[in-house]
Design a protein that fits this description.
Blueprint (H helix, E strand, L loop, with lengths): L38 H11 L27 H23 L13 E3 L2 E3 L14 H12 L5 E3 L17 H19 L13 H9 L10 H7 L13 H18 L10 E4 L13 E2 L1 H11 L9 E8 L10 H7 L5 E8 L2 E9 L2 E5 L4 E3 L21 E4 L6 E8 L2 H16 L8 E2 L1
Parallel strand pairs: 3-10, 4-6, 5-13
Antiparallel strand pairs: 1-2, 1-8, 6-12, 7-8, 7-12, 8-9, 9-11
Pfam family, one: Peptidase_C54
Protein name: Cysteine protease
Family: Belongs to the peptidase C54 family.
């Protein structure tokens, strides 16, 4: 479903930049890449709002065609909001029919919650509404709201030689990848126990991480540079891609930035290793983690030094046909108990999200489909508003409804951490009843 259809529903997830206040959508899993079965419905939905939206497609030079998409300024937000007001009822009904109702908050279950390797055990007292501010739930919410959120942005400089100044409708997988990579950098620089505190000045290391993901070519891990690094894997402005292509693109971008980084900033980088199977992660095949290959990746990255560098392991998977095979779900849940867990790049078909936690059969996620104005973050400016990079509202999706094409992420700080990961992965494979997510060699 076109993400533009979701832009007019109010949200409490995060605030806009200080330059412009607007409501952001709370609806979960908005599709960038509609299936063929939904195309007729999507056409109606698109026609209702896209013609009035400056973000639904980039401004392009006039063509020789009779119908010329010309960039103008008369399509103001007044016109857009008026159109959205008339269409909002139909859009909401369409979203509920295709995606299911929006699911937010934490259920009343007393089952433990795992959030990127950290366990939150909820007592029966704290699971009641009266005790919602209980110690464990409060700790979980603080942890969740400290995770870095990357969403659609509008108003950034054109990507490469194109005229795209927004990634609305097509950039959700790229934004999900940015979230996972940013979280790895956060673990590296500030540790897993770091929490964002609004009452204190922003940490310079935290701001430096956000600056790396700014929407400009000057930022190392911007959507601009990711697309450039991933051209060989099909990345292009305006095109939707899958988890495998994004994983390979991050590998390429990290290698490129490592070559460009001077010694002063060397400690900020990390090696990236893709774990894939016989089909190289595109059409399935059991992924094999070859310890010898990982060692070679680390040694090459560290240029022969004896010290084992931090490493990001990315595992693209295909776990079924139309949806995840239920036999894999227990193993997917178990990966969140790993201290090295960086979650899952995945969502519903054509609608990528960043899944960061689990409780029973539900996955908590950060949604990149909110549309926000570009924010410029500089590490020198500790007063910058970074609220649009965080979400205070946990949302969840049934794990059984996930698209089978997804990717796992794991961050290993050093050799001991990697060895611990290997022990856990080996045990998980042994307990998987023949449906292991990956095997070790």
């Amino acid at each position: 479903m076109k993400a533009i259809c979701d832009r007019f529903v109010p949200s409490k997830c995060s605030s806009s930049s200080t330059s412009e206040k607007r409501d952001i959508s709370p609806t979960s899993l908005v599709s960038d890449s509609p299936s063929s079965d939904d195309k007729s419905n999507l056409t109606l939905c698109s026609d209702v709002v896209a013609s009035s939206s400056p973000d639904s497609q980039p401004c392009r030079e006039a063509s020789t065609s009779e119908h010329k998409p010309v960039c103008t300024t008369h399509n103001s937000w007044t016109v857009i909001l008026k159109t959205a007001s008339m269409a909002s009822g139909a859009i909401r009904r369409f979203q509920d029919r295709v995606l299911g109702p929006s699911r937010t908050g934490i259920s009343s279950s007393t089952s433990e919650i795992w959030l990127l390797g950290v366990c939150y055990k909820i007592s029966e007292a704290e699971s009641s509404e009266e005790a919602d501010a209980g110690r464990v739930l409060a700790a979980f919410r603080q942890d969740f709201s400290s995770l870095i959120l990357m969403t659609y942005r509008r108003g950034f400089e054109p990507i490469g030689d194109t005229t795209y100044t927004s990634d609305v409708n097509w950039g959700c997988m790229l934004r999900s990848g940015q979230m996972l990579f940013a979280q790895a950098l956060l673990f590296q620089r500030l540790g897993r126990s770091w929490r964002k505190k609004d009452s204190e000045p922003a940490d310079e290391k935290y701001l430096e991480i956000l600056e790396l993901f700014g929407d400009t070519e000057a930022s190392a891990f911007s959507i601009h540079n990711l697309i450039l690094a991933g051209e060989a894997y099909g990345l292009a402005a305006g095109s939707w891609v899958g988890p495998y292509a994004v994983c390979r693109s991050w590998e390429s971008l990290a290698r490129k930035k490592k070559e460009e980084t001077d010694v002063k900033h060397k400690s900020f980088s990390m090696a990236v290793h893709i774990v894939s199977g016989s089909e190289d992660g595109e059409r399935g095949g059991a992924p094999i983690l070859c310890i010898e290959d990982v060692t070679k990746t680390c040694m090459k990255f560290s240029e022969g030094e004896t010290e084992w560098p931090p490493i990001l392991l990315l595992v693209p998977l295909v776990l079924g046909l139309d949806k995840v095979n239920p036999r894999y779900i227990p193993s997917l849940i178990a990966t969140f108990t790993f201290p090295q867990s960086l979650g899952i790049l995945g969502g519903k078909p054509g609608a990528s999200t960043y899944i960061v936690g689990v409780q029973e059969d539900k996955g908590f996620y950060l949604d990149p489909h909110d549309v926000q104005q570009v924010v410029t973050v500089k590490k020198e400016n500790q007063d910058v508003d970074t609220s649009s990079y965080h979400c205070n509202t946990p949302r969840y999706v049934p794990l059984e409804s996930l698209d089978p094409s997804l990717a796992l992420g794991f961050y290993c700080q050093d050799k001991d951490d990697f060895d611990d990961f290997c022990i856990r992965a080996t045990k998980l494979a042994g307990d998987s009843n023949g449906v292991a997510l990956l095997s070790l060699l």
